[in-house]
Amino acid sequence: MKVKVNTYGFIAQKLGSRLEVKLEEKATVKDLISKLSDHIKGFDLTQEIILVNGKAVKQDYLLNDGDEVTIMPAIVGG
């Protein structure tokens, strides 16, 4: 299955702001984070804010083909 991923902040700098990621069927958000983390050595993406189709989810959330995942840095300064 494929999911669309939108990223922000340092994550976008490392991966790009829009991606399409291929995952195994019955993949979870944790599986997606693990796959993306392989491309960003030294960064822990498990603490970031994750939205699926606009709703905040936990890492055990089961993804579906065509879902839109947003990953935002958890720390936002101001």
How does this structure look, described?
The protein has helices spanning 9-15, 29-37; strands at 2-7, 18-22, 49-52, 55-56, 68-72. The protein is of the alpha+beta class and 78 residues long. It has a single domain (2-72), classed as Ubiquitin-like (UB roll), CATH 3.10.20.30. Strands 2-1-5-3-4 form a five-stranded mixed β-sheet. The longest helix has 9 residues, at 29-37. It is globular. The mean pLDDT is 90.
Q: Key features?
A:
78 residues; Ubiquitin-like (UB roll); 2 helices
Task: Enumerate the spans where pLDDT stays under 50 for 5 or more consecutive residues.
Answer: none
How far is the first residue's CA from the last residue's CA?
38 Å
Number of domains: 1
Structural class, please? alpha+beta
Q: Over all CA atoms, what is the radius of gyration?
A: 12 Å
The neighbouring-strand order within the major sheet is 2-1-5-3-4
Q: Describe the global form.
A: globular
CATH topology: Ubiquitin-like (UB roll)
State the fourth-level CATH superfamily. Answer: Beta-grasp domain
The averaged pLDDT comes out at 90
CATH hierarchy, class: Alpha Beta
Specify the number of helices: 2
Write down the secondary-structure element order. EHEHEEE
**DSSP strand tally:** 5
**Sheet bearing the most strands, described?**
5 strands, mixed
Sheet-strand content, in percent, reads 25-35%
Helical residues, percent: 10-25%
CATH architecture: Roll
